[in-house]
Design goal:
three-stranded antiparallel β-sheet; 9 helices; 63% helix; mainly alpha; 8 strands; single chain; 324 residues; flat
């Protein structure tokens, strides 16, 4: 077929070091799933797919989402982008000859269309010139044959002024409608912008979901104590990328956040740097907060006590101070 979708497949792909690692862990099921994912990527215009679609792909493959996530993230077979998508560098390279061929074909077609348009305009201009010349000759004959008489130009002038006023009024109406449409669009965008933050706050209030994200991020015990640092970085990332208008539900927020903190991504590496910096400046870093109560090693810290100065410090009830 003229527009059939295809991509080149190396006959020795199974012997690639990354592929050998995949088949060692997941067997031929993993090998087959890899090619299925490539087929999905090939069907996309830019050969990229959102990571948020992995649950749907996993369902079609008859596998758990985590199984497919490991295949995409852990073997170096796919590349994760900063905007929460994944692609294949090998597929991108293999599709370049076809893309170049299509671009050359489109350029040729565009050139032919421009040439046709130029010829058409030239013929139209020539015909218009002939028609104008004929009209001018006919008008001259009419004037020549018409008897001389006085003409009252005042009604004509009044009609011209009225037409001008109508045209100005029409232009003003168009500008007013355009202004209203722009204001409505800005209001809609602002509304979406405020909604996404409320959805984010709702998601951050779900303890069980946050515990799963802690595991998902690889940050484990450092995740919840530094949730404020992580959420602030996420908000700044969304605003910097200008993607807040694409978040239309609580589910979108959760998916975006999960991709942002995903282990192995550039944003995850940045979070680790921010957490490490925050940990060194946090005076309460040697304590744990349990249900609003400051504690250490499972023991409560008296209200008003200064921050625990070191990991080996013990509270002395008699002296009311920390002892090493």
């Amino acid at each position: 077929m003229k527009n059939s979708q295809y991509f080149l497949h190396d006959c020795c792909a199974r012997n690639n070091a990354k592929m050998l690692s995949l088949t060692a862990d997941k067997g031929l099921e993993g090998y087959g799933a890899y090619w299925v994912l490539l087929e999905y990527l090939r069907e996309q215009s830019d050969y990229c797919m959102p990571l948020s679609l992995l649950p749907s792909l996993a369902k079609q493959l008859g596998k758990f989402t985590q199984w497919v996530e490991e295949l995409v993230c852990n073997y170096g077979l796919f590349v994760l982008t900063d905007d929460g998508r994944f692609t294949s560098q090998g597929l991108q390279q293999r599709m370049k000859p076809l893309e170049n061929k299509r671009k050359a074909r489109d350029a040729k077609a565009e050139k032919a269309a421009r040439k046709k348009a130029v010829n058409s305009n030239t013929n139209s201009s020539f015909s218009a010139a002939q028609k104008t010349e004929t009209n001018e000759k006919n008008s001259a004959k009419k004037v020549e044959n018409r008897p001389l008489q006085l003409v009252d130009n005042e009604p004509v002038a009044n009609a011209s002024l009225e037409e001008k006023r109508i045209e100005e009024k029409r232009i003003e109406e168009i500008k007013r409608k355009e202004k209203e449409a722009t204001a409505s669009e800005k209001e809609s965008s602002s509304s979406k912008s405020s909604f996404w933050e409320s959805w984010l706050n709702e998601a951050l209030g779900e303890r069980s979901w946050l515990e799963l994200q802690a595991i998902h991020s690889g940050l484990s015990g450092a995740f919840l104590p530094h949730l404020e640092v992580i959420s602030k970085a996420f908000r700044e990332h969304v605003l910097l990328q200008g993607t807040e208008v694409t978040i239309c539900s609580l589910r979108d927020v959760k998916s975006y956040f999960s991709n942002f903190i995903r282990q192995g991504t550039v944003t995850n590496k940045r979070l680790r740097e921010l957490i490490e910096k925050a940990a060194t400046t946090d005076v309460y870093r040697f304590e744990q907060l349990v249900d609003g109560q400051r504690t250490y090693c499972g023991l409560p810290i008296p209200e008003g006590a200064p921050p625990r100065p070191a990991v080996t410090s013990v509270w002395d009830e008699r002296k009311h101070c920390w002892e090493y």
